[in-house]
Write the structure tokens for this entry.
Amino acid sequence: MAGHNKWSSIKHKKAKTDAQKGKFFSKVSREIIMAVKLGGDSPDMNPRLRLAIQKAKQVNMPNENIKRAIIKGAGNDADTQLEEITYEAYGPQGVALLIETLTDNKNRTVPNIRAILVRHQGSLATSGAVSYLFNKKGIFIFEPHSDENAILESALMFPSADIDTKDDGTITLLVNPDEFDPLKSEFDGVNMAYEVAEITMIPTNSILLSEQDADPIINLIEKLEDDEDVQTVHANFDIITATE
């Protein structure tokens, strides 16, 4: 038999490792600043800010840093004139990439991204060439052997909820973005523990690759996400792993 959920596992394990290293502090600070600029400085009234603060706490960012980022976003400092830009690209094996950035200087960001892509057999794509391959979704990931019936019970009132149990026992639940925040509140209200809760871009179809063929793409994504202006990278591939 073959399973193809390995990339999802790698991605979230990597995120946890990076968080432990404090690598996300700068990126999360930028997300908080942008969230405040777009929706105000009240977490109760601003779902994006609420999610950004949760992410900051997950990476153990000190409260003082969170408050400082909120103050910066509420002000109009010259050094916080961030621009939200998504670049479309192709990686090895024709894998589609969406590269989300928050930058105060796109004249720095574009050459850096292009150089990383070229060094790793990738290239920038024209606007619209890749984005149609993804849908924006809210995603919840529960650790293996979580209570699927309890998860379903909380999700019943949300029409778009789509639950999937992976080969390793991990449970993934997708919802439309407008249902994400109320469903998260529902889970939190009944103390339903999840490993991941975020709004992200989900590929409509994935290219299935062997572990060997996937390695260059994973390396490319890691190099892109090391760039200070890159917030996250979405890709439409998954890894086939042989199992007995």
Q: What stands out?
A: The chain is about 45% helix and 25% strand. The chain has a mean pLDDT of 88.
